[in-house]
Protein: Universal stress protein
Organism: Streptomyces morookaense
Amino acid sequence: MSGATTARKSRVLVGFDGSARALPALDLAADEALRRGTTLEILCGWPWGRHRSPDMAMAPGGPSLHQLSRASLDRAVTRVHGRARHLPVVPTLTTEPAARALVRAGRTAALTVVGTRGHGGFGELLLGSVTLRVAAHCTGPLLVVRGSATNERNCVLVGLESEADLGALRFGFEEAARRGAVLRVLHAWRYPAAPSLCPPAPLQWDDVQLLAKSAEAVPEYAVAALRGEHPGVEVDTVAMCLGAGHALTEASRTADVVVVSAHRRARRLGLQLGPVTHTLLHHAHCPVALVPDTRSGPTP
């Protein structure tokens, strides 16, 4: 096993800003570290609390902002040990911007965990500036807290577009094995669109059946390639004639986690996530695991 692989398996990383809304991510990250039998690192990047610049780092007549933030991290460690007494925990406080720090530290983590909201009225802003930035640039698996992470449904859901998503499928197999859960692999497909200059022709029943059979073969073929690595995992494959974002969002109602490849494309403003990923990050009913698509190119 290479040193890089060993390092990647060494810990679970979670972003923590000290807010009450960060606690679900902290709890979920502790559970993931327990499943993996590894260390939990709690990382608090800049800005600390609601303060936007280091000039505001001193609280007049009281402790410094650094001391307050360190105390918040200490309380986070205490909370984790209340759930898992013997879990190794490493608290990290840095002046590096939170998104950049999480991307950098996540390069050697088995899993990075982030929430979807931040402090008070800045929740939506922090979703865009931290969670979405990490999702667009992470090089390792990212778990984003969505919905309820407390009610176990004994199902890991994987969204599969094609054989190019084998990385996400492998992650799904591993997650199902760790949880002792059923692995459900969903492939969404649509009827082919007619050329814009041609009037749409009605599909014959034989054509519909052929399309459906071809769609069913996509998850079955992909699963067959990996089933031997996890023979004890129960697998259910599904092909649905529906938009992928809608199909996965609805299926996430009965899943503990939904896993998808993070398809990212270079745009004028940098790497951007695809529409299905965006839909799940905003509307899924359970946590969303993003597995980077290695075809997306280098990550800054």
Observations:
- Residues 1-8, 51-57, 118-128 have pLDDT under 50 and may be disordered.
- Residues 155-296 form a domain with the Rossmann fold fold (CATH 3.40.50.620).
